[in-house]
Structures are given as C-alpha cells and as structure tokens.
Design goal:
alpha+beta; 7 helices; elongated; four-stranded antiparallel β-sheet
Length: about 270
C-alpha cells in the first residue's frame, strides 16, 4: 500500500513515527532513528512554495546516493537497515528489500540537523533537559580521552571519577554558569543526580579527573561525550575539600556545552 502525501502530512502533524508504519531503524541509536523518522516525514510532507524539497535536502547536505524517498513506501518490518559512520563527519543509511535498495543516503553528523534545532535553541533548552531527564535505567560508560594529558590517576582521582560519572551518589547541587552562543551566559541550579540522569538518558560517556588541587579545594574536569551526535559537554567544578566527607553541598561549576568533536585534535 502506497502512502499519499496527505497521509504523510497527517503523520507529521500527529507526531507519529514513519518507522512505526514499517520503516526499520537501528534501535541502539535512538537519536539517529528519531531524526530519520522526523526528517523523512518532513520530506514526504514538504509543501513550501518558495523552496523545493530538493533545495531543502541540498541545504541540509542530505544526499540520496541511490533509490528514493518515495521507494520507502515499500518498506516493511522485514526491510533491512544499515547505518555506517565516517569518523565524526557523516552517516550513511541504507534500507533494502533483499537486493533491492529502497534508499541509500548520507547526511552530516551535525547535532543541529539531527536534533532539528539551532545551537542557541539547543543551549536554551539545556537546563530543562537536565531537569526533566528520567531516573537512570543504564550505567554511564566511563572513558579516558587520549588528548587529555593529566598525571597518573590517584585514589582521589578514582573517587572523583566515581562521583561525577555516576557510581557514587551524593546529594550535591551544581550551580552552573553556562557559556552561550554570542558570548552570553546563563546560570541555573540542578542536582548532581539530575546531571547524571541526563548523561545516561543522552547515552553519553563520561570522564572526570582533578585539574588543580590545593589544601582547601579541588578543581575537577568533567567531560561528557555524545558519540552519536559528535559533541562534548565540558564541566569545570570547584569542590571544597571538606565536602568530600559530606553527603551534600553546593558546588560552583562552569559549563561549555556542545563542543563538536571533529574540532578536537587528537
């Protein structure tokens, strides 16, 4: 059964997934699948009088390599789906029924494109996204990024890693000063638990270590990386030494969010 453009438009207006109607996707990459659902539905329903659908795809650098958007009408729950990544530059997706390729396309790994929002809009949503993250149902992967040159970890470093990457729970509050696009800033307060819930919900990996240490305080570097969307959040947190033996406290932190990883030199 072929979908008419009016049915596609209705799906888009109702916020329904085109995948639910038969287009499969890799479920271990939910943000990519959500993007494909939303973007392909928008192409099917495109009705801008002054901008063609081909111009939109050109502007977004969404390139059809073979097949067509319309051929996805033949997709079923048995259609094969593959997702291929080219470093932090691009994804390639393919839907095929046996030897028949319905659509093979590529698009850039751009969190603005994939999330469907501009950087200022994404940054503005950051406090509410952290606060609204559901309680963790998965652990947070801990990694060491090779371009970060720090001394060999001490026992205290291990404690800090467990604290800021989710294994040890304390009732700290983070008073965050976040840098925004256009040399602006915003301040808000979230709990450490909410921050960790956000990292888990976004399937981010985490690293934490001591940058500076004095008799009175520590400065801790926390890096959270979204591998699917190729960006990092970089958090600097100041911890009074006395708080390490306490289960609660208020910590000052500076946040630089959505740093593209393709700009980072290894």
């Amino acid at each position: 059964m072929r979908w008419s453009s009016s049915i596609s438009a209705l799906l888009l207006l109702l916020g329904l997934s085109v995948r639910a109607a038969g287009m499969p996707c890799a479920t271990d990459h939910p943000q990519i699948c959500d993007f494909l659902d939303r973007y392909i539905a928008s192409l099917r329903a495109w009705n801008e009088p002054n901008v063609s659908v081909y111009q939109k795809m050109y502007d977004d650098k969404f390139v059809v390599l073979s097949g067509s958007i319309e051929a996805l009408d033949a997709a079923t729950d048995t259609t094969a789906f593959s997702l291929r990544r080219y470093d932090d530059k691009a994804y390639e997706v393919t839907w095929a029924n046996g030897a028949d390729t319905l659509l093979r396309a590529t698009f850039p790994i751009s969190y603005e494109l994939i999330l469907g929002l501009s950087l200022p809009e994404i940054e503005k949503q950051m406090p509410s996204r952290i606060a609204a993250a559901p309680a963790r149902s998965r652990s947070i992967d801990t990694v060491h990024f090779p371009e970060i040159n720090l001394p060999s970890p001490s026992a205290l470093d291990t404690t800090i890693l467990r604290l800021f990457c989710g294994e040890e729970r304390k009732n700290y509050l983070l008073q965050i000063t976040q840098s925004l696009y256009g040399f602006k800033q915003t301040r808000y307060t979230v709990s450490l638990e909410q921050w960790l819930n956000y990292l888990a919900a976004e399937q981010m990996s985490c690293f934490a270590a001591i940058e500076e240490e004095s008799a009175e305080s520590l400065r801790v570097l926390v890096i959270a990386q979204n591998n699917d969307l190729a960006y990092r959040h970089v958090l600097s947190v100041w911890i009074p030494m006395k708080y390490l033996s306490m289960d609660e406290g208020i910590l000052e932190a500076n946040l630089t969010a959505f740093v593209p990883t393709h700009n980072i030199k290894q």
